[in-house]
Specification:
Elements: H1 5-25, H2 31-37, H3 42-48, H4 52-72, H5 80-97, H6 101-111, H7 119-134, H8 144-155, H9 165-179, H10 196-205
Helix pairs in contact: 1-2, 4-6, 5-7, 5-8, 5-9, 7-8, 8-9
């Protein structure tokens, strides 16, 4: 039997609120706070998700749907190298927009150790990476796992707040230069360096990660 419209709306509000609260307060943030942010009662939360783990699993599945959509759009660029750049940019921006995701993935690894979320990325990227190497545009010793790991690491800067997104672009440019074979042209950096005071402010803003 289909859910009533208000039930569907409550489910979506809870997922949206959970992403925000987990990003702010960590994976063990109070469920009562999630319900409050969603403007529903705690009983409504438990009708939708019987436990914290069930809520985390729902967040993970929703995010993986988004990943599948992202990956499906990679590969239509002029060159394999352009597809590598596009993938790292898209994945990093997705993580910037959802800073709760790394801690959700970590918890999923505890809830269900058989999960292999990175396979969604690496399966699509392996052929592209190999072609970029064959074209002479990518270092011979780089793998698709390296590409996913680097994009994930860079995307974690979203934990520090939206005003530091420009630093993501700068760090991405530096990493992309490191992926190029010797003699390839350097990329201009997208932003100026962060100063020491700003870096310390970033550290103070970083929420709990587990």
């Amino acid at each position: 039997m289909p859910k009533r419209r208000d039930a569907v709306q409550n489910h979506e509000k809870l997922l949206a609120a959970a992403r925000v609260v987990i990003a702010e307060r960590g994976i063990d943030a109070p469920l009562e706070e999630i319900a409050r942010r969603a403007d529903v009662g705690i009983a409504t939360l438990y009708r939708n998700f019987a436990s914290r783990d069930e809520l985390v699993q729902a967040l993970f599945e929703r995010s993986m749907d988004e990943v599948d959509a992202l990956v499906s759009e990679i590969g239509g660029d002029e060159s394999a190298w352009d597809s590598v750049v596009n993938f790292m940019d898209r994945l990093g921006m997705w993580l910037l927009a959802d800073p709760a995701m790394p801690t959700i993935v970590t918890r999923i690894g505890i809830i269900d150790p058989e999960r292999r979320p990175a396979m969604r990325f690496t399966g699509a990227m392996t052929g592209i990476v190999e072609q970029a190497k064959a074209d002479g545009d990518l270092r011979d010793d780089v793998t698709s796992i390296d590409i996913v790991l680097l994009a994930t690491m860079l995307g974690s800067i979203g934990r520090y707040g939206s005003e530091y997104v420009a630093q993501w672009r700068r760090q991405l440019d530096i990493v992309l230069d490191g992926l190029r074979p010797e003699g390839a042209p350097r990329r201009p950096l997208a932003a100026g360096p962060v100063d020491l005071d700003s870096y310390h402010r970033m550290l103070r803003r970083s929420p709990a990660s587990s």
